[in-house]
Structure formats: C-alpha cells, structure tokens
Input
Amino acid sequence: MIEPTVALYGDAFTKAAAVLEDLIEQAQVRYALLVDRKGFVLVHKEALWAPRPPALDSIATLVAGNAAATQALANLLGEPKFNELVKQGEKQGLYVEEVNDLALLVMVFDNTTPIGRVKLFGKKAAAELDEITRGAVVMPRELGIDKDFHKSADAMLDDLFGN
Amino acid sequence: MSTINFANREINFKIVYYGPGLSGKTTNLKWVYQTVPGDRKGEMVSLATEDERTLFFDFLPVDLGEVKGFKTRFHLYTVPGQVFYNASRKLILRGVDGIVFVADSASNRLRANAESMRNLRENLSEYGLSLEQVPMVIQINKRDLPDALPVDMIRAVIDPEASFPVFEAVATEGKGVFEPLKEVSRMVLSRLADSA
Output
C-alpha cells in the first residue's frame, strides 16, 4: 500500500453499479466493467440475456495493459492522449472509454448493436463515473485494514504456497 | 498499490517478477500455475513471441482465500526481460505492491543481473518510488548450472548492502519457487497492516 487507491464501497459503489446497469440497458451491451488503471475490476455488470462472461481478471488486465501502451504511444507521438479504443470481431466488439487517470470503462457488445450507440452511452456513463471514482480515492491508512488481517492472511500463505 | 473492493469484499495485490532476459521469470509463473489447485487460480495469460519470449507480460491470478471476510488475491505478473522492451516493463510496474527479482546464476549473466537491477530502480523512480519503499525479495535462479556463480558474488552486484531476502532456486524443477513468493506476499501484507 504505497499510493492512494480507489476504494468503491457504500454509496460510491451503489452509484457506480447503477451507472453500469443503466449503460447495459441503454447501450444494449453484454458486459460493462469499471476497471482501474492497474488492471483490477472495480465493478462489473452483465446483461440478463448475456452468456457467462470470460475471466474478468484477464479482460481487465489486458485492457489496462493495452490502455497503458496506447498512452505511451500517444506520448511518443506528442499527443496528450488517445481517447478511445474499439476492437471489432465477427460477432462481438469491445469498446474502452477513458474515465479519468484512475479508471477505464470497458464494454463488450454484440455486432448487432450499433457502435455509435455504444460510444454515445459509453461517453455519458464515463462522465458520471469520473465524478464517482474521484470521490472514492482514499489513502491506504483510511482503509481500516488492521493487523488481524495480516495475521490471518499470513497463516493462509502456508496453506497456499506450502511450508 | 493494492485495490480493495469493499462491496465485493475483495482485496487484490500486484506482485511483479522482474529480472534480466531468460532468467526464468515465466518459468516461475508456469510452475505456480501447474502446482496451485484449480480452484485457487485463474487463467494464465501470456503475451509472448513465437519463440516463447515474453513480449508484454505474463499474468496469473492466485486466490489466497477469505481473510477476515475479504476474498484476497495475488495478481502475479512477469515483465519482458530483454533490454529493448523497457517501455513495456515500465508499464507493468504501475501499481506494484511487491517484487520478486529473478537473477540468473550463469557466469556470463552477472552484468545482465546488475543492469536489470539498475533498470528496476530507474523505472520505479518514474513512479516516484524507490526500492526501499517496495517490498522485494531476490531469487537467484539456475543454481543447477555447472558454471553457476557463488550466491555471494551475485548478491554483491545486485544487493551489495544485503537489504533483501535471498532465495536460491532451480525454477525448472520447482525448487525455490514458492519460498520467495510466500515471503514477498508476507512482506506486502505486513506493509498493508502497517499502513492501516
């Protein structure tokens, strides 16, 4: 715990989840994820009709890596940033919208959904999530994880990684 | 920087395997993947070239289990070790909680170990961090090589002040793979408790 972190809980989490639910309905996408820049999932929602999603950790990690690489490319070309990222396959597409310097919004959609619709509602949702995530930044000491947590986790390390 | 999701009761830590090219970072992750039970790990993602050299990173999520009501996970990453992939290496360090530095015991890789450690310091400094602020352990790998250098000689080059715990390993056989991972995990958890 070295830097400030985004900790979504209580009101902030409820609001972010509601934004993603609205987004799924309005944009008609399969999955919507809010991920932080390090590749961790903060919140995710799925459409009721969507099949079980692939590993969300992997999606978040690859999207964050991709976004970081895109940002580095922008810097090399003298641009402050490249805004959005679209990947389109035969049946599905993936759209990534930058929320802010803390988080990314990821949407997976069927190709029957117009990309314009995805972008329109994606940008609207990203603007709402910007405010929510900025309000959820806390310093590590404010997280309330105590020494008991450390002791309990320590004992479990032997179980997972061996004595 | 760990990520805590209170709503889902999750806490995630990022541990990065760093070191020179071909020192065995990916081999470590593959061994962990093969050994940890299926219900305690996620999918392993490898972004590698056709000849299996890491191009961007390898990624493996491992579940520690539920600690005080929090599902606790370690996200393990490797960086590409080859010198010219530094831009990628730098990106992977973002938000790092702990580092396993994998050094190569081969006599002709002493300089590569030193350069990689220097590179790690430089890349961390771009995030405003120093090695003293990030929990780190050193794994000296390939101890089975006939020309393996003495541990003290390698340590004198990469950790002259003996600041970090050192583990000897033969990662291809799984020897010394889990010990450094467990130690760095302990250090990361300890830091979290100290900052609370």
In short: The mean pLDDT of chain B is 91. The helical segments of chain B are 25-35, 86-92, 110-125, 151-158, 178-195. Chain B is about 30% helix and 30% strand.
